[in-house]
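Thread amino acids onto this structure.
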């Protein structure tokens, strides 16, 4: 509180740097969060961190602060991050042309080296440093650590022209052993996971970050699985963002063509996590400051909640 009186003295409205009504509203917001803090205390939340929230400096800092706040009020966030744009930028600087099939990057040996360097090195360490800068205790890891994220190579994928091609070192998750993640959580750390998996021979594979996040959420299992995206949420038949959808409603919207394109793999990832034991999934707009807190700790939320 900002004012001129000592403790026990009186303060007039003019002593505040903000209108008193604004301060009261902030207190009301904290009270609104209280039942959610109480309900979710001790629960694990897996958050897929990607999109504009990863590249905008203000949003990056805001996200790190929010994750630290979650930990301090008794929740256990686990962050799984992407990094497609950053990988594209690095490949471009090296003169490497990168192709995609159904959203998955065609990954040869050289591209895999770049993917590991950017995801497991640069991006992961930056996120860990941001969290630490706001008082959190974060540890970065990839699926190679303790081989906790296993995958098998995707042998072939179909191009738009109907031709089958080998996508290179692209993997599909086969097993998640969450022991190392659980131990970090239990010891008070915030795990920050890069989506690089290993095959049976210990060879690195490039895996879709949404899929990794969903599978980690299943394996823990998490109370909630939150996907940060660059859209407001899932839209219903009326074109408006739906605040809540059941898995059967999602299926109907897909059948009717309302859910299409890049939203399909995201909702499928959410549905798979729910089927695997996660209680609720959320698709929210990471371009909004404090998006995670607003979705978890307010009555209305800001995105789409998906239930079984």
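Threaded sequence (308 positions):
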């Amino acid at each position: 509180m900002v004012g001129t009186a000592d403790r026990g003295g009186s303060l007039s409205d003019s002593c505040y740097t903000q209108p008193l009504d604004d301060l009261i509203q902030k207190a009301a917001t904290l009270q609104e969060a209280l039942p959610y803090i109480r309900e979710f205390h001790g629960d694990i939340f897996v958050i897929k961190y990607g999109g504009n929230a990863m590249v905008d400096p203000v949003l990056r800092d805001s996200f790190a602060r929010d994750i630290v706040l979650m930990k301090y009020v008794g929740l256990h966030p686990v962050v799984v991050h992407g990094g497609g744009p950053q990988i594209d930028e690095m490949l471009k600087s090296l003169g490497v042309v990168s192709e995609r099939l159904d959203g998955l990057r065609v990954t040869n040996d050289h591209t895999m080296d770049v993917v590991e360097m950017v995801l497991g090195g640069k991006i992961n360490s930056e996120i860990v440093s941001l969290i630490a800068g706001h008082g959190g205790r974060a540890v970065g890891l990839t699926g190679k650590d303790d081989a906790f994220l296993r995958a098998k190579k995707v042998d072939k994928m179909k191009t738009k022209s109907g031709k089958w091609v080998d996508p290179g070192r692209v993997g599909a998750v086969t097993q998640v052993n969450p022991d190392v993640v659980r131990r970090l959580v239990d010891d008070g750390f915030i795990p920050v996971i890069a989506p690089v998996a290993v095959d049976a021979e210990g060879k690195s594979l490039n895996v879709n970050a949404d899929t990794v996040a969903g599978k980690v959420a299943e394996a823990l299992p998490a109370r909630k699985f939150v996907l940060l995206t660059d859209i407001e949420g899932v839209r219903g038949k009326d074109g408006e963002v739906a605040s809540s959808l059941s898995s059967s409603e999602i299926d109907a919207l897909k059948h009717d063509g309302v859910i299409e394109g890049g939203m399909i793999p995201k909702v499928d990832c959410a549905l798979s996590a729910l089927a695997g034991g996660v209680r609720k999934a959320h698709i929210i707009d990471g371009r909004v400051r404090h998006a995670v807190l607003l979705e978890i700790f307010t009555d209305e939320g800001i995105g789409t909640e998906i239930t079984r």
